[in-house]
Amino acid sequence: MNNNITSLGYTVFFEKELESLQEFINKGNYSQILILVDRNTNDHCLPVLQAALPELVDYDIIEVDPGEENKNIDFCIGVWNTMLDFGADRKALMLNLGGGVVTDMGGFAASTFKRGIDFVQIPTTLLSQVDASVGGKTGIDLGNLKNIIGTFTQPKAVFISSAFLQTLDARQMRSGFAEVIKHGLIFDKDLFEQCKTLDYEEDELDAIVHRSVAIKNEVITQDPTEKGLRKILNFGHTIGHAIEGHSLVTDSNPLLHGEAIAIGMICEAYISHKVNGLSIEALGEIVSLFTSRYERYEFDASIYATLIDLMRNDKKNEQQKLGFALLSAIGTCDYDRFVEEDLIKESLDFYLASAVL
Amino acid sequence: MNNNITSLGYTVFFEKELESLQEFINKGNYSQILILVDRNTNDHCLPVLQAALPELVDYDIIEVDPGEENKNIDFCIGVWNTMLDFGADRKALMLNLGGGVVTDMGGFAASTFKRGIDFVQIPTTLLSQVDASVGGKTGIDLGNLKNIIGTFTQPKAVFISSAFLQTLDARQMRSGFAEVIKHGLIFDKDLFEQCKTLDYEEDELDAIVHRSVAIKNEVITQDPTEKGLRKILNFGHTIGHAIEGHSLVTDSNPLLHGEAIAIGMICEAYISHKVNGLSIEALGEIVSLFTSRYERYEFDASIYATLIDLMRNDKKNEQQKLGFALLSAIGTCDYDRFVEEDLIKESLDFYLASAVL
């Protein structure tokens, strides 16, 4: 069964063995193939790619260090310089093989190199498969501000293979799973229900990844540059990104993106209950799912001011007001809801209390 | 007379007092106005802008150092960080008031900040008025490679005022004038003839700037992302950019862009004569105009290998062949002409000889 998804001018292929990739490359008449990997995907995922490309004998590998803390301008300059060292011209193709760091930064590097070369995203983590594979967002962090520099540039194709998920540890799976739950919360109550019982069995996982990408694609094709509807994808992210940014600079073993977003979703579900009509029962269901699957993260009220400062630089804000996407029910989300600082702090208090329920 | 030019989705206003700028800003409902200047435009051009904007009481100034050597990623990071410090959100507007460094780097910073905010180009040098005001190219240098990182992003408007040209010294005027001559050479024999006698008198200059922008606009609207025709705008730039890049890292008082391009045009006119049918008489006319107006630049054959290396990273190359735009007559230019190294070296020899004719 061909269950590919058509996004903004390109195809998302769901293929365990990347069966169509060789043909895609042959059609493109590219001068050169660059493959961006990190240390992990170089070891565990590159062999799958090489097996899928029997005709590709000549290519250049660019390796970056794994970890969100390396998705920064310094590494990006390193990628640009390596592309120059390899003599890449405007007809080169970049294959980004990795998690969000590789696909976000690789997409940004490609979209700005000689004013833009073609790139293909091959996300290898659950998180990047369900979150970064459609939408055309590229980006890097600056200091502790996430994805603050970037472009909207569509890849030429996306390849999603369940083979790569076998290489992930439980913590990485949980991180990606948070975005799946989010897609259920903002758009599809059935998906949310499924999430309650998921045990990462392969067939079930395939279906959930596909449904997640389909939901995100439905949202972003209606609003490619985030003027309106697309903002619902940011549910949990206003507070979650701040917590993630804070953790990146203070923790020796920082939170993964999904772990931070899970905390953000608890807080923002609380705010949704307080000001956007989300019922107390729905709030209870949401808190219960997250606290059963995610470990408690320790912090206290002394960091609230820092978190609020980080939120002030969130891309969704306007005129200095803090913008949120808020649920009105499980499966339904609104956007451009502006929230007072006191309620944000209250929601952080709620997280700290709820996590020990 | 309204002689505005319509480009790719925006208007180029030719207005000495920037008469329409206030109305443009009012219509945009922007959260904030950022003005990017360099030290020179802060002193000499900002007062003109302020006089044109009587209703604008609140704005933030970002100042960068003038000079092509500062159009790099480090300064760009400084601009991004200053935008963050000023709390700029996605509805901020950036006014880039300056020469090519300010418009290229400001355009790049704006097009990548929070994945893109609106910007307006207000070029203040002859060079940036005739070269950078249409086309949507943004960019920064990396090392000694010019504009190697950038995007194609259209501004929301461009304002060209002859008032700013009064602030320029003779050397800056000559630098910009090289691009005017280029527009004549590649597209309009009449403009080339006019250039022979131009003495920078204001009315005549106005007409020549307008004609130059109109020519460039005609080319770029047919080929916004430089897949074909647009490459003719690069006449003189393959060799000129290499000489400019070399000068930037070796000379204490580096060549200005137009000065380097003038050298590049002599060399590439020679190559045009050798392999693209440009007559010996036309070559003579071209050499004569440039040598009468531009000083000889000293170098010798020991730097040829360095220059060729720099050309190898030119954005117009494909498959390691060096790509040129070449004249077949004055007013007519071809593109995608690939040239051997030996002929390039011969053309540099020709420059060194011609300059003492």
Question: Can you tell me about this structure?
Answer:
The structure is a homodimer of 357-residue chains. In chain A, the strands form three sheets. A seven-stranded mixed beta sheet of chain A has the order 1-2-9-6-5-3-4, with helices on both faces. A two-stranded antiparallel ribbon of chain A has the order 7-8. Chain A contains 14 helices and eleven strands. The mean pLDDT of chain A is 93. In chain A, strand 1 and strand 2 form a beta hairpin. By secondary structure, chain A is α/β, with parallel strands linked by helices. At the A-B interface, helix 4, helix 5, strand 7 and strand 8 of A face helix 4, helix 5 and strand 8 of B.
Observed structural traits:
homodimer; Rossmann fold; two-stranded antiparallel sheet; 14 helices; globular; metal ion binding (chains A, B); DHQS/DOIS_N (chains A, B); NAD (chains A, B)
